[in-house]
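Two proteins follow. First one:
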Amino acid sequence: MNTSIILESLVGSVLLLTLMSSAAAEPGKEPARAALWVDALEGEPLAFPRMLDDLQQVRVVYLGEYHTIERHHQLEEAVFEALARRGVRLVLAMEQFEFFCQPDLDRFNQGQIDVPELIGRTAWAKRWPSCTNYVPLLNFAAHEKVPVLALNARTGTFS
């Protein structure tokens, strides 16, 4: 039930991210649960900025989530947006799109279509019922001109 989103930067390293909570709390508000990032090599928790420092050094980051848990999506967004703000060159590769959707993703990447049209052209809502959980990532990718790639093989026949 996990999914992978790949954020590509420039070099290589290993970091295990244990997602346990929501993204950083708004100023003045406490998060609903504790967020914990764990470095797999050190076996120790990392502060979010230190984790971002480490991620800036890696080539590929896999962020897994349960598709239906909102706080997992918030964490993905927080990492994706924070790396973009740091100037990391990113690519968003999503298992939520099957390989044959890439031509429509290419049109999206070029700004020729928006998220609602992408959803319609790819029948994404039919193929991926929880697709709306990924709309903020796609909107951010479009705004920041981050290319989006389809990772999934064909999963079935849809009309």
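Second one, unrelated to the first:
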Amino acid sequence: NNPLENDLNRIQQWNADHPDQPKKYYRQHVIAWHGSEQNAAFYHMGFDTSKPLATKEIMNARLDSYIEAMFKRYQPWDDIIMSWDIVNEALDDYNGMVRNGWNGSSWGETSLDDASSQSSAWGTIYRMKDENGNPVMEKSDERLLYESEWIRVAFASARKWQKELGVHWKLYYNDYMNSSMLYEPKMTNTLKILKPISEAGNLDGYGMQARLSTAYPTIEMLRNQIEEGLKLAPEVSFSEADVRTDFEVNPLFDPEKPTKRVTSGVEEWDQGGSGSYNRRSQQNGNTYDVSNGPVRRKADFNANDPETMRIQADYYADLMDIMVEKGAEGKVGAIAIDGTSDSNTFNGGTGCQIWDNSGNEKPAFYAVIGAPNRFKMGQAIEAGPADSEEASYTADSWAVYAAAKDAAEALVDVRIYDAEGVEAVKKATADLNAAIEALERTLVDIDFDVDVDAY
């Protein structure tokens, strides 16, 4: 009666019943979350919450045993499970260090790192201490690598049991970059903790939840993140993406000051749309939980405004162009959009989805499905002969080709916002491919006269 296993059985059966259809696969999430999602007893001596937290040596062995049990349990579905998220959201969104205990946390640590808000039993157990046994507060690469030991242990164990059991699952690290918080230092530190895992041959994929907005981060930042991720892992994935439309760039953002979680001890920030402890429960619809963030809530936000939807579509189109390009190189594992409407999604109320509240396709939907079609059209344009080769083909066949090529090239920079735009690109691609196939070469007269006296 396990719901996940029931789903896996249904997928296996569907694949068996539809051998002529593309197979359906499953992405498994997640082996080890950052901390408080597993049962609290898992982290204590003797699995007893009345006893102290376990040592990191015990947790290393416990993590290995847990991964062995999980992989053995799901081994029967090896044919349809394509990947496992081995570790999820290990770094603090504010300071980029491994998440650890904080004031009020059930894990018991009394110190609160500067700008930190996010607790983790893993981070507490593996916390770097000084010679007096006090948690090290200085943020450094040494501390980052020391405290991320549990992440390396998880991936090494997963690779070991993957090979031992003969399963074919790709091993992923998964995290998100929240559009209301700074990308740095979290993004760079994520790459730092993944480097030794990659060098050990234990990393197959870099998963990005891609909680984005049209205001932040920029497409250039995302392209850099994807490129850097691919230096460490063979492929990247968007595991639960969305693009909020309710944010605008915060003109009061001060990069010289820290971006922090709002707490009762932090003053209210007069930013017209962010930084309010009293309204922090509205964080999904606003940015009140973040002080001095790079974005703020639009005062006149309307998810159904045509210009707002157009800007979202353009953002999706630019992002999908990058992913389709990398996908053609075999470097993209999956692209998953989170939710089914603007209201039925994690970031509900932010206009982030590619469907509106009634489930109707927004312009962003057509931008997403238009991206691979635009890529194919670009391939067709590149595949045709250059203008300098016109003399090599008959006038009639070249005229058809030239007209088809002109029609395709005219659509290269045209944005797609509706079904007609998608169909126009598909038709232009089909016409161009047909014209290339129909090109006829001209007959060339060859002079076979030979001066026999020369021989």
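SUMMARY FIELD: The chain has eleven helices and eleven strands. The longest helix spans residues 306-328.
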